[in-house]
Amino acid sequence: MLLTISTTRRPATDLGYLLHKHPDRAQSFAQPFGEARVFYPEAGEERCTAALLLDVDPVGLVRRGRRSGGFALAEYVNDRPYVASSFMSVAMVNVFKSAMAGTCKGHEELAAAAIPLEAWLPVVPARGGVDLARGLFEPLGYAVDAREMELDPAFPDWGVDRHIELRISGEVRLADLLTHLYVLLPVLDDEKHYWVDDAEIDKLMRRGEGWLPSHPERKLITRRYLKNQASLFHPALAQLEEVSESEAVEDDDGAEVGDGEAIASGDAAAAATRAPDDAPALREQRLDAVVAALEESGARRVLDLGCGSGALLRRLLAGGYEKVVGVDVSVRALEGAARRLDLETMHDAERARIELLQSPLTYRDRRLEGFDAAALVEVIEHLDPPRLGALERNVFADARPGTVVVTTPNAEYNVRWPGLDGGMRHSDHRFEWTRAEFAAWADAVAARNDYGVRRLPVGADDPEVGPPTEMAVFSR
């Protein structure tokens, strides 16, 4: 099976630096299933092409593995040695490991730059044909040239095969191109040659960071990448949904209309709306209210669930708590929090008080147990309503802190902001509740989990529509 990668960025031979493979040498790399060879069919100033040729040994694979008990000859005579499948993905990560990581000592700017690249695979198994190939690669910004293959040109009535010729091109980082191919080739094939388990979820989350949560075919990609195993792809999809929800707001820590910042949807009228000039921004009022509720609880160990880039964490660290833990499903959000808190330069004693954890809020995580209090600041409205039950079980039944503080927008107040026209304050909000709806949810959660609950307004309490933000303080 063959993969070629070409560039026309001058000098094109810089592709050798990026791939860590010299254009003047052909190299071989032993693989568990055969041998991979890297060579350059062309290497000039104007254009350079690197080829990865993978020679799979089907006989050796069958002899080393278990017999399937089916049609014996089919184990030796099939398309696996010839088509770009999960074998190619494994070879890529083995042979181009540094390139996939985006590292290139002495050429760091080149490795970080988007350059014109073209990848060609002469034979790709595609259960879904050219339409699926376009649906997978075009949302990532590639121009896709995918061509069907006739089963036999001499017999056109036989129709087309499930294999295609695939060529994708675009201005992209080499690391991103390799990563996209690594994930999506087995997805096109809808098959993997190796056993998958929970570790494969972590691999998908890592390789898909920054592009998979927003991909329109993320459900299909996740299901096929995890070999259609429901015990794997359902948890993975939940993580992707939470990453999507978190990344939609991580840059503004829940900023929305009325926080003195533009609405995320870009509506011009809403963008011009500001909090009252004589009052702190709503975000600051909200954080003040949450901190006051946590202080009143007497908590010493506190969780910030859905911490985003760390606005509340910074206040909690200044409050002298014994332990503060920020939790978010998004790695990028946690990296932003680490930068915002200056963790790298923080004194050791101070650093010991803060911890950042990657974890979905809808699956049990025993690391969240044993805390005095937890805060969910503008988090619940980013979850689809059917998933609130899972959040409730994880936080109130399993982690079970002594105090839980929850804030959420009051939908009734939206009419006070011109430009919203009664709509939601943020494009990623899945719902916004009225005061009665929030009260009903909070009372039910408290009753099911043996908590008491009291509700407090945040911001100016309008006599007709109530406050802009509702807060519930649950106590065991």
CATH architecture tag of the largest domain: 2-Layer Sandwich
| C-alpha Rg (nearest Å) | 27 Å
Strand composition percent: 15-25%
Counting helices, strands and paired strands, the structural category is alpha/beta
- Overall geometry: elongated
> Approximately how much helix is present in the residues?
25-40%
Treating each run of at least 4 consecutive H or I residues as one helix, how many helices?
18
Spatial order of the strands forming the largest sheet: 2-3-4-1-5-7-6
**Average pLDDT for all residues:** 85
Low-confidence stretches: 66-74, 248-254, 260-279
Under CATH, the homologous superfamily of the largest domain reads Hen1, N-terminal domain
Largest sheet: 7 strands, antiparallel
User: Could you say what the CATH topology of the largest domain is called?
Assistant: c-terminal autoproteolytic domain of nucleoporin nup98
In total, the number of domains comes to 2
